[in-house]
Amino acid sequence: MDLFVQLWEDIVYIWDGHASWYLNGMWQTIQIAVLCTLVGCVIGLLCGVLNTIPCQKRDPMWKRILLRLIRIVIRAYVELFRGTPMILQAVVIYYGLPYFTHNSVRFESIWLCAFVVVSINTGAYMAESVRGGIMSIDPGQTEGAKAIGMTHWQTMVHVIMPQTLRNILPQIGNNLIINLKDSSVLSVIGFVEFFKVHSNVVGKTYLAFPSAAIEMLGYLTVTVVASILLRWMEKKMEGSDTYELTQEDVLTMAAGTYSHPDRTTPFEEKNMENREHPKLKASRRRGGQ
User: Fold this and answer.
1) Average pLDDT of the chain, as a whole number
2) How far apart are CA 130 and CA 46, in angstroms?
3) Among candidates 118, 276, 109, which has minimal Cα distance to 183?
4) What confidence tens digit (pLDDT) does each residue in 127-142 have?
5) Could you give the angle at which helices 2-51 and 110-135 cross, rounded to 10 degrees?
6) Residue 151 CB-density burial (10 A; 0-12 exposed, 13-18 middle, 19+ buried)
7) Within 13 Å of residue 96, how many CA atoms lie on the same side as its CB?
8) Cα angle 263-264-265, degrees, rounded to a multiple of 5
9) For the purposes of burial, counting CB atoms within 10 Å of the CB of 236, is it exposed (0-12), middle (13-18) or buried (19 or more)?
10) Average pLDDT of span 48-72
11) Cα–Cα distance between 18 and 22 in angstroms, integer?
């Protein structure tokens, strides 16, 4: 029990002296994760659309060559940034560009470099997610859109992409949560985010575990809130669970229940009455009486 009391006292001591550090680091982490996830989704959508442009033998030669080159570039980009750790990507982009260009090309802002690294890394993962989401849509919808004269771009924007976004929304949320945690590797280039604050506080107070406890609680809080918001967005995109309004439609209610009015003439009614069984006639007369 004494150990927990001491831990609590150390946490309170660290928080009282460095609360602004932790809050600023958390804000930087949330900011970089949300913005880079949005930009990564845009990159992934563009890659997905370019990868699905139809290419047939009757198309011009220049179009087929251009599409082949675009797909090769996209494939190389995806494999490169999915196959290497983001910490190495940050080192190469931040330190490698000045090294190979003799300091003629370099990032003056660490924040901008961090933004670029996380965005292109997220875009590489989202490119494959978007491609899978587009392939999951029924091909008949694309054929129907083309049958009414829609171009490939119009089909993607108005028919395929809305459904694709709904299908890949869980993956988008997963990438957001990953970025919230993996942005800690950006401390290697000096970007002061939430985990970097932990290193700074430990270097000043020498209280590593109490500071780590604050970090764990902070990361857990942010990821849980993000998960709740994403689940809420999924339910909103699913729409209503009932279809009562559809059943109230006049045409829907009339379908299968409409009957033509009786068009029989008095002469036909008389013939039908004569064809009735005698017992039925007698019972009808007694009922009338």
Assistant:
1) 82
2) 9
3) 118
4) 988 888 888 888 888 8
5) 60
6) exposed
7) 8
8) 115
9) exposed
10) 85
11) 7
Q: Is the pTM of this model over 0.70?
A: yes
Each residue of 201-217: pLDDT tens digit?
Answer: 999 989 999 999 999 99
Question: Measuring CA to CA, which residue among 112, 138, 129 is closest to residue 167?
Answer: 129
Q: DSSP characters for the chain?
A: -HHHHHHHHHHHHHHHHHHHHHHHHHHHHHHHHHHHHHHHHHHHHHHHHHHT----TTS-HHHHHHHHHHHHHHHHHHHHHHSS-HHHHHHIIIIIHHHHHTTSS--S-HHHHHHHHHHHHHHHHHHHHHHHHHHTS-HHHHHHHHHTT--HHHHIIIIIHHHHHHHHHHHHHHHHHHHHHHGGGGGGGT---HHHHHHHHHHHH--HHHHHHHHHHHHHHHHHHHHHHHHHHHHHHH--S--HHHHTSHHHHHTTT--PPP---HHHHHHHHHHS-HHHHHHHHHHH-
149-165 pLDDT, tens per residue?
A: 888 778 888 888 888 88
Could you tell me the sign of the dihedral formed by the alpha carbons of 228, 229, 230, 233, in that order? positive
Residues 6+ apart with CB under 8 A from 262: none
